């Protein structure tokens, strides 16, 4: 089992078990592991790292992907969300949802750019309460760019979609302590204040 996502100060070693029938394959940086990803038995973690691993067994489907984010700094005094997605889905020059892509108009607000597309990609959110060392929850979600003209800003608003096709059909959690009656969410929007 992988150590929990969280805030760390001391380096540590991740140990994964393999045998003659199954191996753990991992990727660093957000990509999903595939059957060609490196086999990992031990991995030293000493700096901020995103790690995604799955177990692959001959003649069987791979296990679910385990995603961990290890941040080497002190936990902040505000709530924190780690968002993980395949970097190519975000930043590929042709298809990444943060990029202008091949069809962007040269004039502001660059209609036709990838960030104007109605496109949702799979992602994972891991949420921490203020100063917490372990996550309050971790969920697989849909991730899409949100907003109007603020889409042209470098820091873009985004929406997380809780749908059955990604994982859970909703989030049951008190995200906003000042509104204790709000406990069920289909969508969460992270605004860039645009």
Can you describe this structure?
The protein has one helix and 13 strands, in the order E-E-E-E-E-E-E-H-E-E-E-E-E-E. By secondary structure, the chain is mainly β. The strands form four sheets. Strands 7-8-9-10-13 form a five-stranded antiparallel sheet, with no helix packed on it.
Q: Terminal Cα separation, in Å? A: 41 Å
By helix and strand content, what is the structural category?
Answer: mainly beta
Strands across the major sheet, in which order?
7-8-9-10-13
User: What is the count of helical runs?
Assistant: 1
- Whole-angstrom Rg: 18 Å
β-strand amount:
25-35%
The biggest sheet, with number of strands, parallel, antiparallel or mixed sense and barrel status, is: 5 strands, antiparallel
Note the topology.
Blueprint: E1 6-7, E2 12-15, E3 22-28, E4 42-45, E5 49-57, E6 66-71, E7 80-84, H1 87-91, E8 121-128, E9 137-145, E10 158-161, E11 171-172, E12 184-185, E13 187-190
Parallel strand pairs: 1-6
Antiparallel strand pairs: 2-4, 3-5, 5-6, 7-8, 8-9, 9-10, 10-13, 11-12
């Amino acid at each position: 089992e992988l150590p929990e996502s969280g805030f760390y100060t001391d380096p540590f070693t991740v140990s994964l078990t393999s045998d003659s029938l199954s191996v753990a394959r991992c990727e660093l940086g957000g990509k999903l592991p595939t059957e060609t990803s490196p086999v990992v038995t031990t991995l030293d973690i000493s700096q901020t790292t995103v790690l995604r691993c799955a177990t692959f067994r001959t003649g069987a489907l791979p296990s679910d992907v385990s995603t961990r984010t290890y941040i080497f700094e002190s936990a902040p005094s505000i709530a924190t969300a780690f968002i993980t997605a395949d970097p190519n889905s975000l930043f590929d020059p042709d298809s990444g949802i943060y990029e202008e892509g091949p069809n962007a108009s040269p004039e502001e607000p660059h209609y036709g750019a990838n960030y104007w597309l109605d496109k949702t990609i799979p992602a994972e959110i891991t949420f921490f309460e203020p100063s917490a060392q372990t996550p309050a929850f971790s969920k697989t979600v849909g991730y899409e760019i949100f907003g109007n003209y603020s889409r042209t800003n470098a820091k873009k608003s985004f929406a997380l979609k809780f749908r059955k096709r990604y994982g859970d059909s909703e989030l049951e959690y008190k995200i906003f302590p000042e509104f204790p009656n709000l406990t069920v969410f289909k969508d969460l929007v992270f605004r860039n204040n645009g």
